[in-house]
Amino acid sequence: xTSILSANELxxxxxxxxxxxYHDKHPFHHLMRSGKLNREQxxxxxxxxxxxxxxxxxxxxxxxxxxxxxxxxxxxxxxxVDHDGSDASDSGIERWLCLTDGLGLDRELVTSLRAVxxxxxxxxxxxxxxxxxxxxxxxxxxxxxxxFAPTIISERVAGMLRHYDFVDAxxxxxxxxxxxxxxxxxxxxxxxxxxxxxxxxxxxxALSALRFKCDVLWTQLDALHYAYVDPGHIPPGCFRPxx
Length: 243
Description:
Heme Oxygenase, Chain A, mainly alpha
């Protein structure tokens, strides 16, 4: 990229990345929404996804620690409250644990993270490290996968309620909140990126950051597919469905 893009051109390129790379295109997601997974495979997904969920506040705290502008801090702080809550009963993390509880997973096993796939752990930790170490623009741009979240959430919830009798609406309440939160979060982040990516180099960095985040999400489903859809590939120490 050698010339500056207009704000609309940059926005269209960001949206194109999601259209190509977001993990709603992944085979594991298609299996989930179409009812092709069994209870143990859904358990494995929920347990591993918790590793990502519980690291999101760490990522957001790392970003906040680098922001001088009080208005930006105030806006981004809402993300911490969404995930951690003002108390345990009001947190996104607790709502995710309601899902793992509903799937019959031992809560201590889930929260200990000891049964998480290595690729899940590496991808999640790489994301936190990216936000901590790269430019603030790149850190914010990496969150723009939330632009595409409502679609995958709607597909996931509808498919799970339709096809899996071991999942109910109460267990899926985490996603109800995200249908409201994700658009609010992504609107602010997009405004920030479009307003602060002022050079070709900065615009390329923002686009690359979004590609990286898509890779983080895609890698997690790759690991699940390899371990639990293709039999016999579960790494030592990781979650193993009961026979």
